[in-house]
Design a protein that fits this description.
By secondary structure, this protein is mostly beta strands. The chain is 0% helix and 59% strand. The chain is built from no helices and twelve strands. β10 and β11 form a beta hairpin. The chain is elongated and about 50 Å long.
């Protein structure tokens, strides 16, 4: 099994920056994608950014130009550098890892951490 732990959340003023990190532990060799989603109060969970095993990235429109995702797939770590934060970025942030390769097989599975809370004050 794979466990994910997100860190780096906290309280920041609008216009500030924050860096979130996520680390996987357990039995893995690499993942198909690693990413970040967020869920604001009373709203659906939404994509923020994804990075593929090959390094390709995908960003939500709200994240383009202000957020940057980076990761080390073999190490099972991914980070999200967030800049020029706005109050609407207040949410719980989760790092889903999708598609697991172990030494013996591929598993079409998703793994989610418990999230880290980001609060942006106006």
């Amino acid at each position: 099994q794979v466990q994910l732990v997100e860190t780096g959340g906290g309280l920041v003023q609008a216009g500030g920056s924050l860096r979130l990190s996520c680390a996987a532990s357990g039995n893995f060799v690499r993942f198909k994608t690693m990413g970040w989603y967020r869920q604001a109060p009373n709203k659906a969970r939404e994509l923020v950014a994804i990075i593929s095993r090959g390094g390709s990235t995908l960003y939500a429109d709200s994240a383009k130009g202000r957020f940057a995702i980076s990761g080390d797939n073999a190490e099972g770590t991914v980070s999200l550098q967030m800049s020029s934060l706005k109050p609407e970025a207040t949410a719980a942030y989760f790092c889903p890892f999708k598609g697991l390769w172990t030494t013996g097989a591929y598993y079409d599975m998703d793994f989610w951490g418990n999230g880290t809370l980001v609060t942006v004050s106006s």
